[in-house]
Amino acid sequence: MPDEPAVHALLAERWSPAAFDPLHEIDDEQVASLLEAARWAPSAGNSQPWSFLACRRRDAQHADVVGSLSRSSAGWAPDASLLVVNLCHRWVDGTEWDYSEFADYDLGQAVAHMTIEGVALGLASRQFRAFDLDALTRALDVPPHWAIRTVTAFGRAAADSATSRTPRTREDVRWGATDR
Amino acid sequence: MPDEPAVHALLAERWSPAAFDPLHEIDDEQVASLLEAARWAPSAGNSQPWSFLACRRRDAQHADVVGSLSRSSAGWAPDASLLVVNLCHRWVDGTEWDYSEFADYDLGQAVAHMTIEGVALGLASRQFRAFDLDALTRALDVPPHWAIRTVTAFGRAAADSATSRTPRTREDVRWGATDR
Q1: pLDDT tens per residue across span B16-29
Q2: Residues from chain B contacting residue A117 (CB–CB below 8 Å)
Q3: Least Cα separation, residue B153 to chain A (angstroms)
Q4: pTM > 0.90: yes or no
């Protein structure tokens, strides 16, 4: 194998920590920059089929998110300084609602832009789906044409999560193969 | 309105040109870096439910992609120095195939990482769905558990597309709103 190809530091340095520092606080300017990064992501026909609910520990809806966490995420997600609920357009039968088949794809792009802005701000992030979707949808009173897909935890990685960090692993690039 | 929040240059400078420079050539190292950036994107359970087919003008499958273009994309996409076909896992009934409900979302993330790496390399990009999906799926002999979602054109923006560039527009950020 040749050396791995070079990738820009903002992408190469992104990783998902197993634990966050519960003493870290995120400021208004950082939250605004994260949302702004997602805002300018591209989308099919500029449909922008995304919505985000950014909750800090003191925000009213933070308790709704924490209350919906599964056992696996309840152990670490409340320590993040920001929990962002990521929503996308949902198909609703029998309505004129302008749903795009790329709603999930575009939400993924917007979340990627947000997490990469996070790296630029010195924030680690971890996306997860380990929460009670129905309970969180009810608690946040999400309208029927929106669907919660994931939550992103942002914050400072806990010191021991960095030192005990397991290496990231990925499939190799196989040129020309579309099957596996 | 206050000033717009700061966003890292790699994200702020990304835009989708209307035309590419047909004289621009992309080198092997750049293609490798684009694929490497996508490779390290995060995904649900590290499922990596994506695949990419990178075609330069001289590559055999470039003709397949160009042959499938709609009238709207045929006018500009062949001028790009690279066309990347973006595929994700597809649900297949009655099989043991390991499909993730986040396949589209994760593909969107990986494509975002690839396009941001493109900005770092000085490459403009434009994603599109203006092609004959069935024809391209047949031409590339895509297995049934993979689905082509989009194509990304990478290259150098045509000089006149930069000067005649229309400003990017987005919805405003509305704090706390999940409805619109």
Answers
A1: 999 999 999 999 99
A2: 7-8, 11
A3: 14
A4: yes
